[in-house]
Structure formats: structure tokens, C-alpha cells
Design a protein that fits this description.
The complex is a heterodimer of chains A (about 325) and B (about 280).
Chain A: H1 2-14, H2 23-61, E1 71-72, E2 77-78, H3 81-112, H4 115-130, H5 133-160, H6 175-199, H7 203-211, H8 216-227, H9 229-245, H10 248-253, H11 271-278, H12 284-326
Helix pairs in contact in A: 2-12, 3-6, 3-9, 4-6, 6-9, 7-8, 9-12, 11-12
Chain B: H1 3-41, H2 46-50, H3 64-94, H4 99-113, H5 116-131, H6 136-160, H7 164-172, H8 177-188, H9 190-205, H10 232-241, H11 245-280
The chains are: A mainly alpha (about 325), B mainly alpha (about 280).
């Protein structure tokens, strides 16, 4: 009896008057909580739906789905290896082109650019990220591919034809065309993140290198870039995540063939493109389920890639915050 | 000491090279915009904005069905996505110590990196497969899911810029928390939140992949959200990959309209943000 009254009396006393929640506060917090809770629920639901959609194909093909190369809706045989291969290869081509360019721009903007150019150039490169994927696809079909087919590809074949990568007949739509368009699309992301990471490098790094007699370039290469290394790797991986899931432009340029070719001039396919092309016209439940399986795999891979990238960027950002406090 | 000239030379060369790279990186943007303007502008006409497409093979017609469709689909997506994203963003900023905040922020990052086509598959499985027909609403749902994490992030970041002294002053004057949040914190940062939301709208307006098997596209002017509906990005895709010359011209013109809408929204939003920061700085 006494214990109960004590507890009752004690309760209002532990709260400061500021903490006292009125009805208005409770309703407000309740509504906000509703919004905040929706997001994890949505993700859970998304994973569940993908899993359920893919279950039929998972049961039928198991993990062999990843290594099998046959994709035959008529014979109801599905294997995603050419799709996975195409996704990885097109993304790697994109990174091979986009990373040097983005890093160059980021280094220029943080280290060498005149003050007045910084904002406009960053803004213009950022505009590339605002252009819808389907517009890249359109431009790729009618401008990029004709240009590549008539000039760049024949030139590449002549100069680098000793490599199997650059041999064989030249079609327009190809792995290389898709890689190039992906490079343009991924560039703004890699550029803006690596620029942020480079900006986070403390000026003492630069000053120390210059004071030791390094040239401007040597200071960048020996003192700035190594300091930001893991953040730059994070930026690149973030770009990879973008490239892996990019759909429309790739679908329009890659040629959409379930094949693995040594030549980059040959058409290929990616996971996202296969879903885009075949999902609404899928014949039968197994085909549909196989595509859902592909979507599930794509989801898992992009989550892992993005999580890795964020971890790396976060490490650098934390380091710089600590450095900032130390100064 | 003889190396010194060489080292300086290398340095200048590399600085020059990096400067050149900027030009190379800007080249695609210039080409895309110029091509769009040149190829698209010729096909813009009053008919283009007021009529539905002519039957395949015939000339004439327009894309009013797709413009209306995009407005409806994106409008509905914003009506679903904005409130959720805003509420979640305010929650994360106002209750940073809550475990739900950590979870929501983490999940929003995951969703932000999820390919839009995967979200399309989800919307298909969730809405189209259960209703057994394609619908504009399913497309809106997919776009809303893409929009929520973007709105959440910008809202949260904008609110975090508000100095805590402002919040403390309001609380000290006896404002309840909810009024402090809404009429002091959110109100102060409202321009930033609005521009962040506009950026998100601009981003989803150009999305094609999640609409492919949800809204599906259509040749007719439709106002019914439970039926298939056309959208500008879908029109660009269908016309660009179609066989007719005429279609290609319409693809360019639709793309020009689409990019104008997207650029006006996103450039306007960015400029507004910058002006705001200049004002405070």
C-alpha cells in the first residue's frame, strides 16, 4: 500500500517540467513516429515481397542460378550468369573511365582551381546527375552509338586489336557503349564524394608537403590523396553501386543478348536490363520468378556495395572531424 | 638540384592535365543539352502539347496524354512520399537519441542505394500482382518509395542547421515541444525543406524503370489512377526504341520537355538553397 503511493508520488518528481508531455506533444510525436516507422517497415516488406516472388525460382534452380548460363523461357531453364557477368563488366568499364576523370576534376576543384571556377564547375558536373537515365539512353542511341560505330570503335580495333577485348565485328549497341554511357552517369557521384573527401583533408597536410619542398602536384599526390585514400575508395564503390543498378540507359545501349562475349564490341545484357525488358512480357510463373530472383540478387549486391562505401566514407569523415577539433 | 626543373615540369604538366580533364568531363553535358535543343525544338508545336498520338505510321499528334500522366503520377507520388519523408526527417532531427532514428536513417540509406528497377519489381509484386492489372497508382507508389529517403535526408540535414539556442529560447518561453518544432524550427528552415522536396520531385519525375511494369504506359489520355497511364519518360523510351522516324522525333521532343521540367525544378531548387546560404553566411 505504501509502496504504491510512494511510486505514484515519485513519478512526477523524476520528470523535469520541460519533459512534461502535453497531449499536443504526444500526438505530434506519434505522427512523426508513424512516418519514421514506415521506412523500416517498407524495407522489410520489400525484402519479403522480393523473396516471395523469387521463391519458386530459388527452389527450382538453387544457387546454381548464379553460375548457369542458359536463359531459355521456352524450355523453362534459367541461369543468370551472363546477366551477372554483363552487370559487373559494364560497371567496371564505367569505373575505368569515370574514376580517372572524376578524380581529376575533384583534384582540380579542391587544389588548383581559381576560386571563381569552383562553384560553377561543380554545379555543371552535378547537372549530369539530374539528367534522367532515359534521356541518356536516347542520346546514346542517336548520337553516341553512331559516333562510336563510325569512328571510335574502328580506331580502337586498329590500335588495340591485338587484345581480344577489341576484336570482332562492330555492332552499334555493345558492352562498351553501355560502359561509356554509364561512365558519364556515374561521374558526378564519384566526383562530388571525392571532392568532399579531399576538402576534408586538413590544410596542414598540404602545407607540410610544400614546406618540405614538394611541387604543387607532388604535394597532392604524396600528402593529400593518400590521406583521403579510403574516402576516395568509398566514392568509387558508391559509383559502383550506382552503375550496378542503372537500368534505362544500359537497356537502350547494351544490345540485350544473353551471351558472354570476349569482345567489348559485342552486345551483352545486365541484370537490371533483363528485368526491364522481360518482366512485363514474362511467359509463365517460372520466368517471372527467375526475374524476381535476379532483382533479389541485384538488391543484395547493391546493399552490400553501398554499405561498404558508406563505412569507408564515414571513417574518413570521422577522422577529419577529430582532426578539426584537434586544430 | 638538376632534378628540380624536371619535377617542376612534371608538376605543371599534371596540373595542366587535370585542368584538361575538366573540359573532357564537361563535354558530354554540353553535347547532350545541345543535341536535345537542336533535335527536340523542331518538333515542338501546339499540337505536341494538346493532342494524343496519331495511330502508328500516321503523322501528327502529340504527347498530351504523357504530360498529363506524368503530372498525375508524380503528383500522387509526392502526395504519398512527401508527408512520410517529412515526418520521418523531422523525427530523426528532433529525436536524435532514439533507437528508431538510427534504424530509420540506416534503412533510408539502404533504400537510397536500391536500384529503382528493384523498387519497380516490389511495387509490381505488392500492387499489380495482387490487383491483377497495371495501374498508375502502383507507379506512384514506386516513385514515392524512391522519394522518401531523399526527402528524409534533406529535411533532417536542414533542421540540424537550426541553432539550438533558437529551440531553447522557444522552450524557455513556455512553447510546447510540438509548437517549437513546427513554428520555430521547421518554419526557420522551411525554404531549405521546400527546395529539398523539389529536388526529390525533380529526381522522380525523370524515373522510367519503376514505371515500366506498374504504370505501363498507354496511348490514350487517361485520368484514372487505377488504370495504366502514360508518362513522359515512358514515352521517350517507347518512341526512341521504336522503328519509325516520326517516333524518334517525338522521342527527342518529349525528352526536351522532360529535361526542361527536371532542370527547372532542380536548378531552381539548388539556386534557392545557395541564395539562402549566402544570405546567412
Amino acid at each position: 500500500m505504501t509502496a504504491i503511493t510512494e511510486r505514484k508520488l515519485a513519478r512526477p518528481a523524476d520528470r523535469s517540467p520541460l519533459d512534461h508531455a502535453s497531449y499536443g506533444d504526444r500526438i505530434f510525436r506519434g505522427l512523426l513516429t508513424l512516418g519514421a516507422v514506415t521506412i523500416p517497415l517498407l524495407l522489410g516488406f520489400l525484402v519479403l515481397e522480393l523473396w516471395q516472388g523469387a521463391r519458386l525460382a530459388m527452389g527450382k534452380f538453387g544457387l546454381g542460378f548464379v553460375t548457369n548460363s542458359v536463359w531459355d523461357p521456352v524450355a523453362v531453364q534459367f541461369g543468370a550468369f551472363p546477366l551477372i557477368f554483363g552487370t559487373l563488366l559494364s560497371s567496371l568499364i564505367a569505373l575505368a573511365i569515370a574514376v580517372p576523370l572524376s578524380l581529376g576534376v575533384a583534384i582540380f576543384l579542391t587544389e588548383f582551381s581559381p576560386e571563381g571556377l569552383r562553384q560553377p564547375v561543380a554545379f555543371l558536373i552535378g547537372l549530369l546527375a539530374a539528367i534522367p537515365s532515359v534521356v541518356y539512353g536516347l542520346w546514346g542511341i542517336f548520337v553516341l552509338i553512331p559516333a562510336l560505330r563510325t569512328t571510335a570503335f574502328p580506331l580502337l580495333r586498329e590500335v588495340l586489336g591485338f587484345l581480344p577485348l577489341f576484336r570482332g565485328p562492330i555492332y552499334g549497341p555493345s558492352m562498351l557503349a553501355a560502359g561509356i554511357i554509364l561512365a558519364i552517369m556515374v561521374m558526378p557521384y564519384v566526383m562530388s564524394v571525392s571532392r568532399e573527401v579531399l576538402l576534408a583533408v586538413p590544410d596542414t597536410q598540404r602545407e607540410a608537403a610544400l614546406a618540405l619542398g614538394a611541387t604543387r602536384w607532388e604535394a597532392v599526390i604524396t600528402a593529400v590523396v593518400p590521406y583521403a585514400r579510403s574516402g576516395i575508395i568509398g566514392a568509387v564503390i558508391l559509383g559502383l553501386g550506382r552503375a550496378l543498378g542503372e537500368t534505362m540507359a544500359v537497356t537502350m545501349l547494351i544490345g540485350n543478348r544473353h551471351e558472354i562475349a570476349a569482345s567489348l564490341f559485342a552486345p551483352g545484357y545486365t541484370m537490371a536490363a533483363a528485368i526491364a525488358n522481360e518482366f512485363s512480357e514474362a511467359v509463365g510463373d517460372v520466368h517471372l520468378s527467375a526475374l524476381a530472383y535476379v532483382a533479389f540478387l541485384l538488391f543484395v549486391v547493391t546493399v552490400l556495395v553501398n554499405a561498404g562505401a558508406r563505412l569507408l566514407i564515414w571513417r574518413v569523415a570521422r577522422g577529419s572531424a577529430a582532426g578539426g577539433k584537434a586544430l | 638540384m638538376n632534378h628540380r626543373g624536371l619535377r617542376r615540369g612534371v608538376s605543371n604538366l599534371m596540373v595542366g592535365l587535370v585542368t584538361g580533364v575538366v573540359l573532357v568531363a564537361l563535354l558530354p553535358l554540353a553535347f547532350i543539352l545541345v543535341n536535345l535543343a537542336l533535335q527536340g525544338a523542331g518538333s515542338l508545336s501546339l499540337d505536341f502539347f494538346t493532342r494524343t498520338p496519331a495511330p502508328a505510321g500516321e503523322s501528327g499528334g502529340g504527347v498530351v496524354h504523357a504530360i498529363v500522366g506524368t503530372l498525375i503520377i508524380v503528383g500522387a507520388a509526392s502526395a504519398i512520399g512527401l508527408p512520410v519523408g517529412l515526418a520521418a526527417g523531422i523525427y530523426c532531427a528532433e529525436y536524435p537519441a532514439s533507437r528508431l532514428t538510427w534504424t530509420t536513417r540506416f534503412v533510408a540509406d539502404v533504400l537510397n542505394g536500391t536500384p529503382s528497377i528493384v523498387v519497380g519489381v516490389f511495387a509490381w509484386a505488392w500492387i499489380v500482382a495482387t490487383q491483377r492489372h497495371f495501374s498508375a497508382l502502383a507507379g506512384s507508389a514506386a516513385l514515392a518509395i524512391l522519394m522518401i529517403p531523399m526527402v528524409l535526408r534533406t529535411t533532417e540535414e536542414m533542421i540540424k542547421l537550426v541553432p539550438s539556442s533558437l529551440r531553447e529560447a522557444a522552450l524557455a518561453l513556455g512553447y510546447p515541444r510540438w509548437r517549437t518544432s513546427l513554428s520555430i524550427v521547421v518554419r526557420t528552415t522551411l525554404p531549405g525543406i521546400v527546395t529539398g522536396s523539389l529536388l526529390a520531385v525533380a529526381r522522380i519525375a525523370g524515373e522510367t524503370a519503376p514505371l515500366l511494369f506498374t504504370a505501363l504506359g498507354s496511348q490514350y489520355l487517361s485520368f484514372r489512377p487505377d488504370q495504366p497511364m502514360a508518362a513522359l519518360p515512358l514515352t521517350v523510351f517507347t518512341y526512341a526504341t521504336g522503328p519509325y522516324e516520326e517516333w524518334h522525333r517525338y522521342a527527342w521532343a518529349s525528352a526536351l520537355v522532360l529535361i526542361l521540367v527536371v532542370l527547372v525544378l532542380s536548378v531552381g531548387a539548388r539556386l534557392a538553397i545557395r541564395r539562402r546560404f549566402d544570405f546567412h553566411g
